[in-house]
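For reproducibility, we list the full input for the adenosine-5'-triphosphate complex.
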Amino acid sequence: MPTNILPEMVLAALSKVQEPELHKDLVSLNMIRDLEIKGDSVNFTILLTTPACPLKTSIEKAAHESVMAITGVKVVKIKMDSNVPNDGRLRGLLQLPVRNAIAVASGKGGVGKSTVSTNLAVALAQSGARVGLLDADIYGPNIPTMMGVHDLPKTIGNKLIPAEAYCVKLMSMGFLVKPGQPLIWRGPMLNSAIRQFLTDVEWGELDYLVIDLPPGTGDASLSLAQALPLSGVVIVTLPQAVSLEDASRGLEMFRTLEVPILGVIENMRGEFFGSGGGEDLAHMAQVPFLGAVPMESSVRVGGDTGQPIVVFKPQSVAAQAFKSIAENVAARISVSALGQNNAPKINVI
Ligand SMILES: Nc1ncnc2c1ncn2[C@@H]1O[C@H](COP(=O)(O)OP(=O)(O)OP(=O)(O)O)[C@@H](O)[C@H]1O
Ligand SMILES: [Mg+2]
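The corresponding predicted structure, in tokenized form, follows.
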């Protein structure tokens, strides 16, 4: 029997399905690929903007229901895939195959930037993204310890090969100096060291490069924000008021430098430091609140033993909080990339 289901009918049905984060429908967002109609069966792919999409299942379900409602359709097969949008600027400036660079910053030290950076990187990698982690805290590199890697693999030609742990590629000054050796940098050296970390390291194709910044609003953060076109920065703060003042200064510095603020993360929420400050800061600065991580001793133990909590105790409240923060960060990047969307048009096969 000849089919009377037309591609236009399927697209009309899918144009009623909203991507909840991006507030547009799947067809306007160019998310439908490989649409194929065979008799009473309809096959297509939904191309998400991040594998870390928390709404994957609900989008798939809504699309399925919507197409099933077309008269004559008996079978709907959907393949879920993802293609992380490319910021484009990194590729242009440094010839790097890195789609998005995300800096993790704070107003002052000890608030958990390195802990957030490692868990954010590992959680994004667990979702299926290709992730790199750059320890740009050249004064106090902690990433090797927190990721449980102490030696840099070999070099090939004049390129450094990044180390790898938990499916994350990583690079740190900590690999290049002996433990305990002080690191003294001056402005121009710092700038070129950071650039070398990007250009002399064989990162390969990355969806996200997470960059752990040194504390504060000093030279290193400034150099980095200027040396590198960042997709955005996340600001880490403790819950209490004093920490918020520092975090707010950090946030404003990035704003002045025109680095997009992806949002605020409150770390070490609990009895000791209180709660709610991160939300207050996000509200005051009118930026998204990305989530709160409770104070849990296993977070520290994980860091000390080289096993980020999302690997060490994936079911813990803190690990779940980090996963949800990673999804929120990925969503913010997808949202900000929407304006520059140059994805190919829907194809019917
Ligand atoms: N949610 C948490 N619960 C318990 N301990 C935590 C939590 N977050 C971080 N820590 C611990 O607090 C200490 C400081 O964290 P971390 O080193 O990540 O901060 P930082 O901002 O990178 O510090 P620095 O400014 O020195 O680079 C570490 O020992 C870490 O394990
Ligand atoms: Mg640190």
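The longest strand covers residues 98-106. Residues 113-114, 137, 142, 212 surround magnesium ion (ligand 2) (CB under 6 Å). Both points were considered when choosing residues for closer inspection.
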